[in-house]
Amino acid sequence: MTKSALKQLLHGDRLATAAGAHNPLTAALVEEAGFDVVWASGLEISASMGVPDANVLSVTECLSTAAAMAARVGIPVLADCDSGFGGITNVIHMVQDYEAAGIAGVCIEDKTFPKLNSFVAGPQQLVPIEDFAGKIAAAVASRRSADFVVVARIEAFIAGHGLEEALRRARAYELAGADALLVHSKLAVPDEVVAFCDHYTGDVPVVAVPTTYASTTMDELHAAGVSLAIYANQGLRSAIASTRETFAAILRHGCASAVESRLVPLSDVFGLQGTARMLEAEKRFEQVG
Ligand code: SPV
Ligand code: MG
């Protein structure tokens, strides 16, 4: 798949799906499972480094992780770039670097820098509409190819504003050239996202992250008008649950045999690492000389 695949997926007839990843291995699992897109999740990447999702990691760390994922998978990688790692100049360099690294697109959100994960309790700070529209325009103007996707993420609902504010921001970001609008919500029901889709009259595809409204189905999201659903952190959370159980069981039983039946065999790990491919290449090229 090429980079333009992400744009095609956003404009396709069916709901496109993405899942969160934090390294090339988890990106490979996203691809293997059959998702269309890897979401290089800021939450997952920062959690995997044991730090808060609050711009503690630098743009260089986030970029190198997303680039390593893009190098490993054949499906597009959409990189979560928080609020753009600073101001307009940061956004310009960010877009150039992410595009050069083979990443299919970036998503930036209309929060202040440093950002705070949307689900952390407490106030969330938005930047003025014009400021963020400027960042979107800068991102769009800085890409080399129109295939590189710029997603504008609206945090109005997360920050406690209503539909009018979300729609006002949607119009401004669309006008600034956004390729898609991610409308985020932390409700346990999809009502904000559905209301947004019902009242949004623009032309840009809508992206949703059904983390808290987890029982909303893909069919329901598609019927509401969502083009891309991002399952942003379920992989990480299942890994934490499973690793915890495994480690506790080893200590409880005093040996690892008790957990063996629920582990993947090492051959599975070797497969994900491309070991057979490596051995085959060594055999082929050793005989050249
Ligand atoms: C992420 O995966 O880092 C996201 C989605 O931005 S959320 O955590 O829901 O904010
Ligand atoms: Mg994030």
TrEMBL record:
Gene Ontology MF annotations = phosphoenolpyruvate mutase activity
Cite the EC number. Answer: 5.4.2.9
A Pfam family (short name) is PEP_mutase
InterPro entries, per the entry: ICL/PEPM (IPR039556), Pyrv/PenolPyrv_kinase-like_dom (IPR015813), Pyrv_kinase-like_dom_sf (IPR040442)
Going by the UniProt record, its keywords in alphabetical order are:
Isomerase
So what family is this one in? Belongs to the isocitrate lyase/PEP mutase superfamily. PEP mutase family.
This chain belongs to the protein called: Phosphoenolpyruvate phosphomutase
